[in-house]
Amino acid sequence: MSPVTYFIQSCPTCGRRLQVRVEYLGREVSCYHCSARFPADCTPPKADVPSLTFRDLVTGNPGPIWDNCTCR
Questions:
Q1: CA–CA separation, 27 vs 37, rounded Å?
Q2: DSSP-derived 3-state class of residue 33
Q3: pLDDT under 50 in the chain at which residues?
């Protein structure tokens, strides 16, 4: 028996992170939590996060991307 490989995908309805078998790529799967059906897709979603510029890093002004950071 060959080992099973998974990728992680978030449910578009409830946001739960799910382990999806790679052999299900392109097929419709369902969330075990909310039963929503969606296509298995391992491409990362596009982030709506502003990018930092070199000037932001040099001046120490990282902008809104770090406003909620508690590690400072």
A1: 10
A2: coil
A3: 72
